[in-house]
């Protein structure tokens, strides 16, 4: 009955996957630790049980590439404050609604009367602003480089059309600075990276070349389907075995070296590079994006004076250690005890692609 | 000549629901006459008594109630009225009862267009006719604008239990086959993709259907060998299987490749990052049956329209009691957990 | 991060001055902004993330990588009928 989904099902072929697994087993002559940066890849790996199928020589550690997980508590508390305001319609991707702040999440704000709406595209949030001129529409602009073009376009378009009742709460982060933090950590075990394919779709992979060179690690742009992931792992193993710190592309149908120049152009027009807090990790210099001054009037934090809201994280939560690949989720003393998806201490347990949630969901009972 | 002043008469012909429609006076009566009775009338309702007086067949009686809230109230493939009838019919049927009588209680929001109400009432009547049940008593209340979302409906249902069947979620035995009567996720994705703000122009249709004749037929076929049945509504097949595994303290193993999903439902699930096993169904049933009768039950299911895609998705096992494990396409295993809260579209 | 799903462009429109399109994802239709893939033609596949088309899928590259992996299969002593590997540890 099922019709194959083009560009998905070919890359879920179990026979191809099996062959790639065998090939990885054959190529790996010693133990290698590889990090998949992207939470979407973590989700796919755990969901399909790829970690169970890999030979013992390969350890996958899960990286910080989940915007839900790394959005700092401070931004979240500001979001909660904004969402509770009478004049505000607060719009967000569905991912952010269950992420706990200190005491509340966006669902709780909604149940207390806040107008919180889920959108699929930032342009939908802009449409809500057009439709509700008497309201202030705030969009929670979270994301890595993949989502930056979408978030940037909403702001750019608001400026072009003069939609002044629209603003964004920005929590945009970037992959390469986080990789540098991980690689610079004294406890680092990561020997090679699967770079996030959809980040690379926007940014290309040239920006990883200096990282590979500086730290002597191979970096392979990789897709999200099981066959893509295994091909990426195989390539990384090959490079590791050959001692090559190269950047390679295993997601050629979507990724090019230069990336999407149209998208990069609008990111540069709307955003500038800034320092950013990462939840669980802390401040990473020049790791995020903020609105340029030409677009500063669309900054919800200054528009509604919420920059004074600051927040501290739970001391029990070790998500920072997990996000840097220094510990597996089930190594955390709070895992599945104080911290569960029903009562998450940190964001890695909330987002479906958070490493802790993925472990809890698919794993912990049988392992 | 003098003109006698005319007192303005109250408007009696409204296009939308007014507070007075629920106040018990003339407008209440007009709502009954204009909207409800033309579609729902039967020997019981026509008496306009405060209660229905029923003769029940001898034997045990099943009784159930459910309240329906859905947004949008009219969705591709059905509406809240049809849902309220079919849902309660199915709740009776999966327990091994023949559904007979339903009650219907309405909470209407002031300002609800009467045409919309009539559409809903009309399809309730049609759904009841199709399922072979009668709506024998009812009630209507009106609340102020913003105090409910257009319309809420409660339906309760009475059915007579069949002799010689014993269905319970505590009855699962290792070796039993798990049958799913069709594709997963149709209803939930029809609702989600028809909501505003999600950029969808999709026409996924709800699977909303009464299953009592189909369920009656499989119980005729294998009265003693069907051990349990559940309709996988909220929380989807994942929640139902977990409830069954937990109640019987057995494990359930299912196979990823066997789960039927309609192409457009799958497309929407992929795009929104949602697992179809977590999505609600309104015209499906999960059946736990002794393995030697599974083939016969499957044949009977497939002879009914809502069961045409019925398939065995797994079995009851001794291992991992209380847990549902899926064998993936790649031979690995993963836990199918209870979904946490409502399904949210995600971008990551 | 970043769920992005391939879909096929069915038609183009202009909304509020932006190039938009209807994308078919396995029979489900969604709207996406096409500003970042101005050269896309009807019938071509693109990946969609958060309502934006981010890249026209390179059909030749896709076929090429599949061919490459297929050759791996043919080169090895691979028995297609054999049971898939299953982890012993479970």
Quick structural gist:
Chain B is an alpha+beta fold.
Write up this protein.
The complex is a heterotrimer of chains A (367), B (348) and C (90). Chain A has 367 residues and is of the alpha/beta class. Chain A folds into 3 domains: 9-66 and 175-249, Rossmann fold (3-Layer(aba) Sandwich); 69-174 and 259-303, 3-Layer(aba) Sandwich (Rossmann fold); 319-362, no CATH class. Chain A is 38% helix and 19% strand. Chain A has 16 helices and 11 strands. Chain A has helices at 14-27, 39-47, 50-53, 67-70, 73-83, 106-111, 122-131, 148-161, 175-184, 197-203, 209-215, 226-242, 261-270, 300-303, 319-323, 355-362; strands spanning 32-38, 58-65, 88-92, 115-118, 136-143, 166-173, 192-196, 219-222, 247-249, 271-278, 282-291. In chain A, helix 2 (39-47) packs parallel to helix 16 (355-362). The longest helix of chain A is centred in the middle third of the chain and has 17 residues, at 226-242. The radius of gyration of chain A is 21 Å and the shape is globular. Chain B is an alpha+beta fold and 348 residues long. Chain B folds into 2 domains: 19-161, 60s Ribosomal Protein L30, Chain: A (2-Layer Sandwich); 177-335, PurM-like C-terminal domain (Phosphoribosyl-aminoimidazole Synthetase, Chain A, domain 2). Chain B has helices spanning 26-40, 80-93, 114-131, 186-194, 212-221, 236-248, 263-272, 294-302, and strands at residues 61-68, 74-75, 78-79, 97-109, 134-143, 151-161, 177-180, 226-230, 251-255, 286-289, 311-317, 324-327, 333-335. In chain B, strands 8-10-7-11-9-12-13 form a 7-stranded mixed beta sheet. The radius of gyration of chain B is 23 Å and the shape is globular. The mean pLDDT of chain B is 93. A 5-stranded antiparallel beta sheet of chain C has the order 3-2-1-4-5, with no helix packed on it. Chain C is built from 1 helix and 5 strands. Chain C has a single domain (5-75), classed as SH3 type barrels. Chain C starts with a strand and ends in a 15-residue tail after the last helix. In chain C, 19% of the residues lie in helices and 39% in strands. Chain C has one helix at residues 59-75, and strands at residues 5-15, 18-25, 28-33, 45-49, 52-56. Mean pLDDT of chain C is 85; it is low at 77-90. Classes of the chains: A alpha/beta (367), B alpha+beta (348), C alpha+beta (90). At the A-B interface, helix 1, helix 2, helix 3, helix 7 and helix 16 of A face helix 7 and strand 13 of B.
């Amino acid at each position: 009955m099922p019709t194959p989904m083009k560009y998905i099902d070919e890359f879920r072929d179990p026979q191809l996957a099996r062959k790639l697994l065998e090939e990885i087993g054959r190529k790996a002559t010693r133990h290698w630790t590889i990090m998949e940066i992207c939470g979407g890849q973590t989700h796919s790996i755990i969901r399909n049980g790829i970690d169970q199928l890999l030979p013992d020589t390969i350890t996958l550690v899960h990286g910080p590439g989940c915007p839900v997980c790394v959005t700092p508590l401070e931004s979240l508390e500001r979001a909660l404050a904004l969402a509770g305001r009478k004049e505000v319609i607060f719009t967000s991707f569905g991912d952010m609604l269950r992420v706990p702040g200190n005491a509340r999440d966006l669902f709780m704000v909604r149940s207390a009367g806040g107008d919180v709406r889920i959108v699929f595209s930032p342009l939908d949030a802009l449409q809500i602003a057009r439709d509700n001129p008497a309201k202030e529409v705030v969009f929670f602009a979270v994301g890595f480089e993949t989502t930056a073009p979408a978030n940037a376009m909403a702001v750019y378009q608001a400026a072009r059309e003069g939609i002044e009742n629209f603003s964004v709460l920005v929590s945009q982060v970037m992959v390469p600075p986080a990789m540098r933090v991980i690689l610079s950590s004294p406890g680092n075990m990561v020997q090679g990276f699967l770079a996030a394919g959809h980040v690379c779709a926007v940014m290309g992979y040239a920006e990883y070349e200096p990282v590979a060179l500086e730290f002597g690690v191979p970096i392979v742009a990789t897709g999200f389907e099981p066959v893509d992931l295994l091909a990426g792992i195989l390539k990384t193993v090959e490079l590791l075995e050959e001692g090559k710190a190269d950047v390679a592309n295993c997601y050629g149908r979507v990724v090019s070296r230069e990336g999407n120049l149209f998208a990069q152009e609008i990111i540069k027009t709307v955003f500038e590079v800034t320092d950013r807090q990462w939840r669980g990790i802390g401040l990473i210099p020049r790791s995020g994006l903020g609105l340029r001054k030409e677009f500063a009037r669309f900054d919800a934090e200054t528009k509604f004076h919420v920059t004074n809201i600051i927040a501290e994280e739970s001391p029990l939560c070790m998500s920072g250690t997990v996000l840097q690949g220094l510990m597996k989720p089930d190594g955390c003393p709070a895992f599945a005890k104080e911290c569960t998806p029903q009562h998450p201490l940190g964001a890695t347990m909330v987002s479906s692609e958070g490493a802790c949630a993925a472990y809890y969901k698919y794993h912990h009972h049988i392992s | 000549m003098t003109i006698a002043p005319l007192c303005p008469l109250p408007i009696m012909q409204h296009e939308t629901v007014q507070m007075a429609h629920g106040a018990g006076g003339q407008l209440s009566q007009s709502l009954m006459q204009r909207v409800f009775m033309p579609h729902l009338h039967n020997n019981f309702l026509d008496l306009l008594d405060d209660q229905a007086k029923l003769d029940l067949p001898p034997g045990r009686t099943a009784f159930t109630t459910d309240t329906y809230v859905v947004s949008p109230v009219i969705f591709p493939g059905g509406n809240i009225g049809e849902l309220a009838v079919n849902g309660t019919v199915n709740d009776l049927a999966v327990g091994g009862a023949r559904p007979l009588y339903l009650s219907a209680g309405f909470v209407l929001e002031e300002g609800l267009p009467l045409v919309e109400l009539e559409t809903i009432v009309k399809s309730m009547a049609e759904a009841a006719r199709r399922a072979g049940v009668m709506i024998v008593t009812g009630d209507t209340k009106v609340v102020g604008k913003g105090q409910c979302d257009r319309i809420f409906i409660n339906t309760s249902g009475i059915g007579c239990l069949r002799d010689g069947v014993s269905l319970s979620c505590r009855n699962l035995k290792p070796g039993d086959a798990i049958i799913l009567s069709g594709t997963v996720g149709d209803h939930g994705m029809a609702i989600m993709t028809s909501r505003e703000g999600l950029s969808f122009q999709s026409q996924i249709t709800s699977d909303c259907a009464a299953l009592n004749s189909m369920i009656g037929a499989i119980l005729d076929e294998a009265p003693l060998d069907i051990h349990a049945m559940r309709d996988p509504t909220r929380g989807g097949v994942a929640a139902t299987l977990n409830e069954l595994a937990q109640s019987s303290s057995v494990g359930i193993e299912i196979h990823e490749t066997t789960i039927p999903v309609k192409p457009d439902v799958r497309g929407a699930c992929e795009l929104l990052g949602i697992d179809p096993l977590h999505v609600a169904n309104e015209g499906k049933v999960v059946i736990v049956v002794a393995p030697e009768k599974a083939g016969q039950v499957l044949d009977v299911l497939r002879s009914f329209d809502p069961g045409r895609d019925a398939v065995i998705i797994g079995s009851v096992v001794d291992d991992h009691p209380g847990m549902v494990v899926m064998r993936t396409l790649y031979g690995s295993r993963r836990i199918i957990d209870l979904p946490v809260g409502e399904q949210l579209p995600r971008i990551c | 991060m970043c769920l992005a799903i391939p879909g096929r462009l069915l038609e183009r429109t202009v909304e509020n001055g932006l190039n938009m399109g209807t994308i078919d994802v396995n029979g489900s239709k969604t709207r996406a902004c096409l500003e970042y893939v101005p050269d896309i033609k009807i019938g071509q596949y693109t990946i969609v993330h958060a309502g934006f088309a981010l890249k026209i899928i390179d059909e030749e590259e896709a076929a090429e990588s599949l061919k490459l992996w297929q050759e791996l299969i043919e080169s090895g002593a691979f028995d297609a009928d054999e049971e898939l590997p299953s982890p012993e540890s479970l």
